[in-house]
């Protein structure tokens, strides 16, 4: 099949670029909008349609439709699919629902459970973007002969001297670059993020009201979509029976301090709910050992991490991923980037030295790289090991 993209820039010097960066009228530019049913992606679809683009809305059903009907604040199931469909009907563009339950379970949920069982702290939203939305759905958009795919993510894409660049959102409070670090250069060429330049979420809701969308006041999703009420352990127990076997809580010297109700109930940095009060200074979970079913606790200073080893690095910088460079590194989505040194150690591997130690770093989390000046995202990787300072 011949792509519509082959003729996009035939008259680029004579035709001004439209708002999506193509040298042709919006009416001749097809864009697939990934619609979760929330206000963000709904506004993207409505705005592009209002600008005259050939919009096609696509919603993925990612997990059990029946179980999700009563769940509020999720995405991609139940009421959210209905909301996406209503937006399409009101604005007047075609909308499709694709059943991706099996792909989502295999690519995201199963790994989530296995990572927790291995003592890691997974970030399934990144895997969903990487393996489902920006891989499988993006391929569907190409098959629909679309020029690009747009999403409601708060992140910016700029055309640089060496191709498309990924940048943090204009609103730091809404920035989602941590969850999109694994977007490849090829995917970035095809993706568009119309909301990345907005100053606040209030602007998005104002646009929703302007377009008469029923989701204008819909609350943001808070939990991982397939985890009801944030109860990770209950999901893992259903997926992996026997995962909540009890074990010992020990200090860093191996002394038994108490019993726990299953390693899956604990995370690195946790202080509350250990059931070992009255032992003097506060104790925190510093390590999990699933093989011995032990939860290791220690003082707060034992949480300080100076060096992290990362794997599966996705590099978005202009220079080859070879030399040591200063960066800003973000270890958790809720924390700002901090000064660090990035040292490549092999294909897809690196060591990140944090100039100021961070607390609560856990294997399974992402480490995202940023330029030392400006807003550019240079890539990132998955934390495999951590060392104190």
UniProtKB/TrEMBL annotation:
Site (Interaction with tRNA): 153, 365
Gene Ontology MF: a single term: ATP binding
Start and end residues of each tRNA-specific 2-thiouridylase MnmA-like C-terminal domain: 308-383
Disulphide connectivity of cysteines: 128-225
Sequence positions that bind ATP: 34-41, 60, 152
InterPro entries tied to this protein: MnmA-like (IPR004506), MnmA-like_C (IPR046885), MnmA-like_central (IPR046884), MnmA-like_central_sf (IPR023382), Rossmann-like_a/b/a_fold (IPR014729)
Top EC class, one word: transferase
UniProt family annotation: Belongs to the MnmA/TRMU family.
E.C. no: 2.8.1.13
Residues annotated as the enzyme's active site: 128 (nucleophile), 225 (cysteine persulfide intermediate)
tRNA-specific 2-thiouridylase MnmA-like central domain ranges (all copies): 244-298
Lineage: Bacteria, Pseudomonadati, Pseudomonadota, Alphaproteobacteria, Rhodobacterales
GO annotation terms (biological process): tRNA wobble position uridine thiolation
Domain of life (superkingdom): Bacteria
Region (Interaction with tRNA) residue spans: 174-176
Name the record gives this protein: tRNA-specific 2-thiouridylase MnmA
Name of the encoding gene: mnmA
UniProt xrefs under Gene3D superfamilies: Adenine nucleotide alpha hydrolases-like domains, HUPs, Translation factors
Localization: Cytoplasm
Keyword annotations from UniProtKB, A to Z: ATP-binding, Cytoplasm, Disulfide bond, Nucleotide-binding, RNA-binding, Transferase, tRNA processing, tRNA-binding
HAMAP family recorded: tRNA_thiouridyl_MnmA
